[in-house]
Amino acid sequence: MTEVPVGDGHVAVYRDGPSGARSRCLLVPPYGLGAAALVPVVRALADEGHEVIRFDGRDHVGAGSGSISDFRMSRVAADCAEMIERFRPTTVIAISLGARSALRAIAETRCAADAVLLTPVVDVRSTLRAVLDQDWFEVPDHEVPEHVPVLDHPIRASQFLRDCEAHGLVEPDGTVVDLESTTGRVTLIAGSHDPWVDRRIIESVVSRATTADDPTRFDVRIQAADRHTLHEDAELALRMIGAALEAVASFGRDGRRAS
Q1: How much is the pTM?
Q2: 146 CB neighbour count, 10 Å cutoff
Q3: 125-171 confidence digits (pLDDT tens)
Q4: From the CA atom positions of the chain, what is the Rg in Å?
Q5: Which ranges of 117-170 would DSSP assign to H, the alpha helix?
Q6: Domains (range + CATH), the chain
Q7: Is residue 155 within 8 Å of residue 68, measured between CB atoms?
């Protein structure tokens, strides 16, 4: 593990697989899980000959600086952008809420990496409403409690909400803009009956971002699933990992080597 300074803190970076491989994958964890939870994905990618970079970000769980109580999506995006600039991955693989921040980082850095987004949150308002059974973005700021538990982690609610709003990370419109700003191929792998991420919203976002000039750059793949949290369902996690590996293999950039 290596500590890499980012902004006012540091992220903890882990490198696995063969160095100098033709493909380098950057893994972005979901909210509430650190780099250690991605070991099964790392092993699967390394076995296929990919070098793998994963990290614990700031204000999250794991070995990065700060506390998850200060979690903000813009900070995740900034951490992702630093990892992209530093390691120049050929593919970015991101999960759940991490996928939304990773997509912003890919768009803003204008990197050429392809992306695989697993169970991707594309409508933050909709997903948070499904998880918390309330639309906190509609609650007046003076009525928002200091902390709101999100998947067992109390976060500073007003800080998180205002950060999402300030950076255009609340609505699907922002996701469409970020997809349009990418330059590589993007595969979004969704659950058929995911209770937190509606596949129809994913399909709508992709349809809006797709252009007649490049109709196949975005790809939505559906896996049978009736839950969102992959770490709680080993069989589903294995299928999603397999789907991610298939997507990475389909990119197949001949002669392209990680640098």
Answers
A1: 0.94
A2: 11
A3: 999 999 999 999 999 999 999 999 999 999 999 999 999 999 999 99
A4: 17
A5: 124-132, 157-166
A6: 2-251 (3.40.50.1820)
A7: yes
